[in-house]
Amino acid sequence: MKSSVLILCVSLFLMFSCKNEMNNDLKNNQIDKAEISENFKDLKGTWELTGFYNYVDNVVVDSFTINPEFRQLKMYSDTKVMWCKHRPADSSEWFGYGTYKYDGQSLTEILDFGSTEMDQVIAIKKEFIFELTLEDDRFQQIELDEDGNRIYSENYVRVE
């Protein structure tokens, strides 16, 4: 009788200690995710292009705002990106779809397919790597040359 009570007590002790360990692992995992989201602002959402910067020697030398008739939107989910461009004066369609990675400094978009025009670009180059400056409700996607110098940027604001 004493041995069965002892076995029951040991079993309960082990069960509760395992549960505590699992709870600690879950809490640590939640803390890790919170630290990641604090370190990297969220790119998820819908963004609209507002203008461009041109760079010389990594310094902005010119800026352009978007013609009100022209619209370009980018949409990011957890792992997917899709963008589309609307230019009423141009009958060609421009859109692309694929995956992306963002590490806090650079954005890599790997396009799977796009419009007829974009598919011609994708046939030559699928992966697009940008320097990314991200704030809560705006970002700059900066094109770099082969030496890592800034060439131009597309500037976006969050719309959702």
Which regions are unreliable across 5 or more consecutive residues at pLDDT < 50? 18-22, 29-39
Number of strands: 9
Which geometry do the CA atoms define? globular
Portion in helices: 25-40%
Element pattern in H and E: HEEEEEEHEEE
Q: How is this structure best described in words?
A:
The protein has 160 residues and is of the alpha+beta class. The chain has two domains: 1-39; 45-158, Lipocalin. It is 29% helix and 46% strand. It contains two helices and nine strands. The chain has helices at 2-39, 116-124; strands at residues 45-56, 59-65, 71-76, 80-86, 94-102, 106-114, 127-134, 138-144, 150-158. It has an eight-stranded antiparallel β-barrel. Strand 4 (80-86) and strand 5 form a beta hairpin. Residues 18-22 and 29-39 have low confidence and may be disordered.
Short recap of the structure:
This protein is an alpha+beta fold and 160 residues long.
List key phrases describing it.
160 residues; alpha+beta; Lipocalin; 2 domains; eight-stranded antiparallel β-barrel; 9 strands; globular
Chart the SSEs and their pairings:
Layout: H1 2-39, E1 45-56, E2 59-65, E3 71-76, E4 80-86, E5 94-102, E6 106-114, H2 116-124, E7 127-134, E8 138-144, E9 150-158
Antiparallel strand pairs: 1-2, 1-3, 1-9, 3-4, 4-5, 5-6, 6-7, 7-8, 8-9
